[in-house]
Design goal:
By secondary structure, the chain is α+β, with helices and mostly antiparallel strands. The chain has 9 helices and 15 strands. Helix 1 crosses helix 2 and helix 5 (187-197) runs antiparallel to helix 6.
Length: 321
């Protein structure tokens, strides 16, 4: 049996070889472009040169582990994320994956993470968890001591014939709430809303508003309470959208994303969130998207009321490094 070594990832020397490893290992089920692979692994605002690792047999790259640690505003310690672990099919079951995983956890511990997620939803990511359509993946993590916490889902809908089901907006039960697109003047109030109630999304909306994307933001407002909910239409032509959709080779080029959706806790269960989702879906269609995508959600039946269907399923798991 060949021995292997693990060392830090060097983008200049390793990127093409690791991308080729992706193609051999995952490309049949998860095809993506070299540019998309680069964006997720290297172009994140939180990327650090020590984040990723490669495993080698001789001079051949046979394994890769990608990590990410980032600090959510208001939190004390960074969130640790194991973005990707893969081993060449010809070199699996030789201890390489387990060794990469242990080294990756050590990297995240040094970065200050007190809890690590398999997958990850930082500023950029491949999957929120372990894809169910990779049947050997979750058993590997189980064998390494991880336990399933829950399942999450990615949803899609064909927009070409979309119309909002009757009564969605009429069913808002909180009096005087309006649903409308944003204006430049909404920036400070929106960012204050996100910072207070959904800090994990603050940087996303900061980017959108900073790049003039106010007309793609949809806000729920109440005359007494101000903004009580927000979402965003990530359509293919949005100037603030810095990159193409990661899985366009699977879903096509004209994919729009329903951006982070949150409603003030005291205002929930009043139909506001579904009305926001419906208006964002309408905007995506109006602005040229043929498919709408909702990433990393548990609300399958809730979005299903608008016509969204499950596209992919993930096992979610966290543990201390």
């Amino acid at each position: 049996m060949h021995t292997f070594t693990i060392r830090p990832y060097n983008p200049q020397d390793d990127e093409q070889r690791v991308y080729a490893l992706w193609q051999r290992t995952l490309g049949h089920l998860w095809p993506l472009s070299r540019a998309a692979f680069h964006r997720v692994t290297l172009a994140s605002d939180v990327y650090q040169s020590s984040d990723h690792l490669v495993a080698l047999v001789g001079h051949e790259v046979v394994g890769f582990a990608g990590t990410q640690a980032w600090l959510v505003p208001g939190e004390r310690t960074p969130r640790g994320e194991l973005m990707l672990t893969m081993v060449d099919p010809a070199h699996q079951r030789r201890g390489i994956g387990r060794a990469l995983l242990e080294c990756a956890l050590a990297v995240l511990k040094v970065r200050g993470a007190e809890e690590v997620q398999v997958g990850g939803g930082g500023l950029t990511y491949f999957w929120p968890g372990v894809p169910v359509n990779l049947p050997a993946a979750w058993p590997f993590f189980q064998a390494c001591g991880w336990t399933e916490a829950e399942r999450s889902f990615d949803l899609v809908m064909d927009l070409r014939d979309y119309t909002t089901p009757p009564g969605i907006c009429e069913r808002i039960r909180l009096p005087d709430v309006t649903i409308a697109t944003g204006t430049p003047e909404d920036g400070p109030a929106l960012l204050a809303f996100e910072a207070q109630h959904f800090p994990i999304w603050y940087h996303f909306y900061q980017e959108v508003m900073g790049q003039g994307g106010h007309a793609d933001v949809v806000l729920a407002r109440h005359p007494d309470h101000g903004i009580v909910g927000a979402s965003c239409a990530g359509h293919p032509h949005a100037a603030w959208r810095r990159h193409d959709f990661v899985w366009e080779q699977l879903l096509g080029q004209n994919v729009g994303e329903l951006g982070p959706l949150g409603v003030l806790e005291a205002a929930r269960e009043n139909g506001i969130g579904l009305a926001l989702a419906a208006r964002v879906t309408e905007l995506l269609r109006e602005r040229g998207a043929e498919t709408s995508y909702v990433g990393w959600t548990w609300l399958v039946d809730w979005y299903g009321r608008l016509g969204y269907q499950v596209w992919r399923e993930y096992v979610m798991s966290w543990k201390r490094p």
